C-alpha cells in the first residue's frame, strides 16, 4: 500500500510484527486515509521500529510514552489520523499508567499493541503478559506471577472499544483494526503477534489451535456483561471486537471542552514561546 516505506524491516524472518503492520497499513488505506494525514507514534521495543517501516508522519519516542504523544497530537490537530503502536513490554509495564489514562480519556485514535508475551528486542526476558511458568533468562522458574490481562485493564478503565486479533489471520486482523479506526473514541486492539525467536510457547501453532473467533459466533460486542465474561475467561484466546460502547463520545467532542479549547486567545502560543525564550 501507499503506507509502506522503502526501508527493509530488520525484524526476524517470521516475526508476527510483519503481519500486524501489514494489517494496520491496509486498515488505514481501507478507511480512506493516506500518509499525508496519518501520524504513527511508537515507543521502544521491536514494535517501536514500525514508524520507520511505514510511510506516514511518525515519531519513535521513548519507552512506554507513545500514548501521551499521540493524545497531544490528536488534540492539537484533530484532522490527523493518529495511530499509536507498541508492544506488551512497552505498553503494559512502563507504559501501563499511560495506557489506563488514555483508555479512560477516550480520545478518537487507535492503539495497536503487538503482544508477543516476551521482551524481544532485549533478548527474551519475561514481559507483563508472559505466562506464570514461562522459563526465561531472567525467570528460570517462570515469573511466578499472573500475567496482566490488558483487555480487563481496558474494560476496568472505562474502555469504549476493546478488541483482539491475530497477526497471521490477515483478513480478520485488518477488519478488526479498521473497526478500531472507525470507532468514535479510543480504539484498542491487542494483537497476538508471535516472537519466533524468544517465545516457544505462544507460537503461531498455539494461537491457531486455540483462538475462538467471535466473528463466527453470535457475540454482541455491545453486551457489556457478556464481554466482561469473555475478557475474564483465562482459558480462552478470543479474536474479534469483544466490547464496543455504541454511545461513545470522544473526549475532544465533549460538551464544554471544545469551547474551552477554541477559546485559547489568538497569539497565545507566541506569548508562551516568548516566555520560554526569555527564561533561557
Ligand atoms: Fe520479532 Fe521476536 Fe525477532 Fe523481535 S526478537 S523481531 S519480536 S521475532
TrEMBL record:
Residues 44-191 form the Thiamine pyrophosphate enzyme TPP-binding domain. This is 2-oxoglutarate ferredoxin oxidoreductase subunit beta. GO terms for biological process: cellular respiration; organic acid metabolic process; sulfur compound biosynthetic process. It comes from Halorientalis persicus. One of its GO terms (molecular function) is oxidoreductase activity, acting on the aldehyde or oxo group of donors, iron-sulfur protein as acceptor. Its cofactor is Mg(2+); thiamine diphosphate; [4Fe-4S] cluster. Pfam families: PFO_beta_C (PF12367), TPP_enzyme_C (PF02775). The lineage of its organism: Archaea, Methanobacteriati, Methanobacteriota, Stenosarchaea group, Halobacteria. Keywords: Iron, Iron-sulfur, Magnesium, Metal-binding, Oxidoreductase, Thiamine pyrophosphate. Residues 123-147 are annotated as: Disordered. Residues 195-254 form the Pyruvate ferredoxin oxidoreductase beta subunit C-terminal domain. The keyword Metal-binding applies. PANTHER family: 2-OXOGLUTARATE OXIDOREDUCTASE SUBUNIT KORB, 2-OXOGLUTARATE OXIDOREDUCTASE SUBUNIT KORB-RELATED.
